[in-house]
Automatic annotation (TrEMBL):
Residues 6-208 form the Phosphoribosyltransferase domain. Pfam families: UPRTase (PF14681). Belongs to the UPRTase family. Catalyzes the conversion of uracil and 5-phospho-alpha-D-ribose 1-diphosphate (PRPP) to UMP and diphosphate. This is Uracil phosphoribosyltransferase. HAMAP family: Upp_B. The gene is upp. It catalyses: UMP + diphosphate = 5-phospho-alpha-D-ribose 1-diphosphate + uracil. Gene3D superfamilies: 3.40.50.2020. It is an enzyme of class 2 (transferase). It comes from Thermoactinomyces mirandus. It comes from the Bacteria.
Length: 209
């Protein structure tokens, strides 16, 4: 079964509180999501491999470390995943970005895929699938399956808030995928929104209703 990592850094928790607050407007919501995404990227890259290089400092030669050239791919699930991309790119600016268009049918709650454009070398990249909300888990599991269908092998799932039901579903259907979240919420309501959650992430990011 994949691991679940909850990033409880005080800065992440502080910002997430204002993201949840219904009185936070679109501009501030977007800025906070961007900031939390960058902080989560810092944590999620902790296990990146390093290699040794030699550099000449103004004083002497020194053996130092640089990233070992792992290829990273970010895949936001449209729309809401887009809100986290720039924050992550601030820390991993060379990552390639694929886009997966998927929305949750409001009646059936089933994910509907409507767009996919991925880097051609997707099978060689470590992928981070990004979606702020993991509710029933339908969108994330369908997203992971879509990536595996085109050759992806190494996938991490990064969300702001995950419901326990969504975590269980991803772990059951994709036991090889680790999940990284800022918070785990206990419930879904009758419309399968996360409780307490933050409302509709896409609408709050883009000012739609
Ligand atoms: C939201 C959210 C996830 C999905 C989560 O997307 O961004 O993709 O719902 O729900 P699930 O775990 O039950 O599948 P939505 O369908 O609202 O589309 P949007 O991002 O375009 O607003
Ligand atoms: N999608 C959202 O945007 N919010 C939820 O709480 C659940 C699904």
């Amino acid at each position: 079964m994949g691991n679940l990592y909850v990033f409880d850094h005080p800065l992440i928790q502080h910002k997430l509180t204002y993201i949840r607050d219904k009185n936070t407007g679109t501009k501030e919501f977007r800025e906070l999501v961007d900031e939390v995404a960058a902080l989560m990227a810092y944590e999620i890259t902790r296990d990146m491999p390093l290699r040794e290089v030699e550099v000449e400092t103004p004083i002497t030669r020194a053996k130092c470390k640089v990233l070992a050239g792992k290829k990273i791919g970010l895949v936001p699930i449209l729309r809401a995943g887009l809100g986290m991309v720039d924050g992550i790119l601030k820390l991993i600016p060379t990552a390639k970005v694929g886009h997966l268009g998927m929305y949750r049918d409001p009646v059936t709650l089933e994910p509907v895929k409507y767009y996919s454009k991925m880097p051609s070398d997707i099978g060689e990249r470590d992928l981070i699938l990004i979606d702020p909300m993991l509710a029933t888990g339908g969108s994330a599991t369908a997203g992971i399956s879509a990536l595996k269908d085109i050759g992806a092998r190494n996938i991490k799932l990064m969300c702001l808030i995950a419901a326990e039901a969504g975590i269980e579903r991803v772990q059951k259907e994709h036991g090889d995928v680790d999940i990284y979240v800022a918070a785990v919420d206990p419930e879904l309501n009758e419309k399968s929104y996360i409780v307490p959650g933050l409302g509709d992430a896409g609408d709050r990011l883009f000012g739609t209703k």
